[in-house]
Amino acid sequence: MSSAAIQHGQGEQEWQPSKGVIGMTCLIIAESAIFTIFVVAYLFYIGRDTSGPTPKQVLEVPWFYSVCLLSSSLFIVLAEHAIEHGKMLAFRVWWLVTMALGAIFLYGTAAEWRKLIVEDHLTISTNLFGTTYYALVGLHASHVIAGLLMMLVTAVFALTGALKPAHAKRVKVLALYWHFVDAVWLVVFTVVYWIGR
Amino acid sequence: MSETTIPIPSGAVASERGTYLETIHSWIVTVDHKKLGIMYIVYALLFLVIAGVEALLMRIQLSAPNLHFLSPQTFNRMFTMHGTTMVFLVGMMILFGFGNYLIPLMIGARDMAFPRLNAFSFWLSAFAGMLLYFSFIGGSGLPGTGTAPDVGWFAYAPLTERAFSPGHTIDYWTVAILANGIGSIGTSINILATVFCMRCKGMTLMRLPLLAWIYATMSFLTLVAISPLTAAQAMLMMDRYLGAHFFDTQAGGSAILWAHFFWIFGHPEVYVLVLPAFGFANEIIPVFSRKAIFGYPAMVAASVGIAFISLSVWAHHMFTIGMTSYGNAFFTLSTMLVSVPTGIKIFNWLATLWGGRIRFQTPMLFAIGFLFQFLIAGLTGIMLSISAWDWQLHNTYFVVAHFHYVLVGAIIFMIFSALYYWYPKMTGRMLDERMGKWHFWLMVIGFHMTFDLMHIPGLLGMPRWIYTYGADRGWGTLNMLVSIGGGIQGIAILLFVINMVWSYFKGPHAGPDPWDAWTLEWSTASPPPVYNFAREPVVESRRPLWDLKHPEDPDSAFD
Asked: How many Å lie between the alpha carbon of B325 and the closest alpha carbon of chain A?
């Protein structure tokens, strides 16, 4: 393997957007389309069940966990600012707070599923509500898990000192994904716990 | 970020000096956009031959009434595999191959934005093809007891549910489409990031070659169109494996929802496939007319317009499923609206030809064939967009003839044109002109014999997906002619394969710029070195090579 150094002019970064941001934006567009299909399926099947349990009987609004997830967007912004200004200690703190809030949210989803399965006997094959509910919420939870794993890797690098303020742009790309995961929760929350109930 | 070190595999050197094993290894581990592009194209051409053979088998079966060449079961598998292969493994992959190969060269970059993602996407898509065809071997669960998917390429629910499709053939189909879709999304992200972030100095968006513009549009369309299919496949898998009820009509699920989800993907997919064909035409027609493209901004606007309009036409595939009259009117009108930007494109190509000094070499011949055939395909499209007409002809051979006019008459013709045009760049050798002309004329004769005549049995009421028909229907002669036309196309493509192999070893050397063209890929050697450009190019107009060759009358003076 040989390597070639590629010089980038200083002006180039000015007139062309960063490829990380464009790439992540494109991924978000694609993911939005996937979520749209699952949301449409959820809305389409609301109230079409002939047998229970229905959303009204078993779902409780997860206010606390939603606040946790949505506020984590705030803390990741603080982390972005910290690394941009070279404050690595503050970055680590805010980053870990973001992760903790994400993990709490994930616990909330897990606890809700446990209750639905064990107490209410609602599984994915019980009825249309079960099918669409587990698919949509599960799709979102899997995105939370993916985000947490990526943030965990970043956290390891941050704690071992491998992550430098020079990497601020990459951290911003990851933060963009996390903002998307949070924004999607607003939609899922509205559809599942407000319209669907 | 002033300096980045990008590892470049020493593949080009190894392929000339190394052992076979080293050569194969260098292709497998490569992240070079040119090698990946060529692998995409070769892989797609292999599947073009396989799916072509499947089509010919079907045509033999249909050539006369009451034949028993294929069993009804095999016939169902053949049309399913033919459609799925042609759309996902031939169309998508060959077009992504050209995109991969050409875009960095055209915009003066050294590679795609994300080379590793590029390799990942290719191998994932390639793996999908293997999975799909593995169903022939292992589709029933035990090795050697295979069948193949037999539900049609759009796999309407609830036929795909466990109750109606036991065994694993549908599982192979759905996993293959899912994997292929993820590969396509990866490549689309890559193309968009490349076009927007990797342009050389002076390459503003309004100086971008139209092919790059179109690939960016097509990639955006892929992101918003393939993702719904991926989502629907995930739902289908949940139905089959976890007992969910998305499309399970016995438990209240909706079969129509699948139809909507599929066609939300399915119709934009047509434009995903045809837009790159427009892109090739935008590059090839001007070069062989010796004129700059007519109406560059209108071409860009029309491409983007097609992409957006195509997102709102999907239910014209579903007129017979039943909609309100408002729904019918909406989808009829939105479908007709597509003909406005496509009409703009056709007029711009004609205006480019007008007054040009046209060179009738093989790439241009195929491009002109494309112009005529695409126009006719569009006209039958407008006929079918009228819902009342569609009620009469839905699922007949008229529809089959219409969309093959688009897929073969427009897209495959433009792919041939592009292969003749860029083969010298990829291999350093020219394709043989005489064989090329034979290929073109045989293809034209075979194509029109097959697909012009195929409209008529459709009008006479012959439905698609029937494995045979009675002699008293009066469809026999027409079907025989259609099948003979298919055979002629097969011979033409065989000739093309021979031409490609022969010219690779014996063709005349091409040199860097055999067509006297104007875009950046012709400024570097054929085949280009691994790093593409020794020095990063700087452009000042839409035709940088014209500026170099004609310093007394540069485009940049008018830019």
From this structure: 21
* Residue A14 clears pLDDT 70, i.e. is over it: no
Mean pLDDT of B538-555: 91
Between B149 and A103, the higher pLDDT residue: A103
Task: Determine how many CB atoms are found less than 10 A away from the CB of residue B403.
Answer: 16
A26 belongs to a structural domain: yes
pLDDT tens digits, one per residue of B387-435:
999 999 999 999 999 999 999 999 999 999 999 999 999 999 999 999 9
- Out of A50, A135, A169, the one facing B252 most closely (by C-beta) is A50
Query: Which pLDDT band, with edges at 50, 70 and 90, does A10 fall under?
Result: very low
Task: Collect all residues with Cβ–Cβ distance below 8 Å to B345 and sequence separation of at least 6.
Answer: B278, B299, B302, B303
Q: Between residues 178 and 207 of chain B, which touch chain A (CB distance below 8 Å)? A: 185, 188-190, 192-194, 196-199, 201
Q: What is the C-alpha separation between B338 and A3, in angstroms, rounded?
A: 48
DSSP of B7-19: EE-THHHHHHHS-
Number of domains in chain A: 1
Cis peptide before B158 (omega within 30 of 0): yes
In a domain, A5, yes or no: no
Question: Alpha helices of chain A — where are they, by DSSP H?
Answer: 12-15, 19-45, 55-58, 63-84, 88-118, 128-160, 168-189
- Whether the predicted pLDDT of A1 surpasses 50: no
Domain that holds residue A172: 19-48+62-195
Closest-CA residue of chain A to B254: A45
CATH of the domain at A35: 1.20.120.80
Residue in A closest to B228 by C-alpha: A34
List CB contacts (< 8 A) between A48 and chain B: 252
Q: Cα(B7)–Cα(B17) distance, rounded to whole angstroms?
A: 20
pLDDT at B167: 82
Residue A13 lies in a domain: no
Q: CA-nearest residue of chain B to A132?
A: B246
Read off the tokens for A195: 């319209």
Residues in chain B within 8 Å Cβ distance of A44: 254, 257
Q: Does B467 touch chain A (CB under 8 A)?
A: no
> Which two structure tokens, joined as six digits, stand for B370?
């494309």
Provide the pLDDT for residue B192: 97
Closest CA of chain A from B386, distance in Å: 27
Fold (topology level) of B18-558: Cytochrome C Oxidase; Chain A (1.20.210)
Give the residue-averaged pLDDT of B253-271: 95
∠ CA(A27), CA(A32), CA(A37), 5° rounding? 135
**B155-189 tens-digit pLDDT:** 998 999 988 888 888 999 999 999 999 999 999 99
Tell me, yes or no, whether A145 lies in a domain. Answer: yes
B226 CB neighbours in chain A (<8 A) are 30
Q: Is A43 on the interface with B (CB under 8 A)?
A: no
Q: Is B252 on the interface with A (CB under 8 A)?
A: yes
Residue A7 touches chain B, beta carbons under 8 Å: yes
Within its chain, how far is the Cα of A182 from the centroid?
A: 5
What's the pLDDT score for residue A16?
86
Predicted local distance difference test score (pLDDT) of residue A8 = 47
3-class state of residue A5 by DSSP: strand
The three-state secondary structure class of B6 is strand
Nearest by Cα to B542 from B297, B205, B209: B209
Any idea what DSSP says for residue B91? Answer: I
* Per-residue confidence (pLDDT) for residue B137, from 0 to 100: 84
Cβ of A51 under 8 Å from any chain B Cβ? no
Q: Which B positions 207-246 lie with beta carbon below 8 A of chain A?
A: 219-220, 223-228, 230-232, 234-235, 238, 242-246
Identify whether the C-beta of residue B81 lies closer than 8 Å to the C-beta of residue B51: yes
Mean per-residue pLDDT, B553-558: 85
pLDDT > 90? residue A5: no
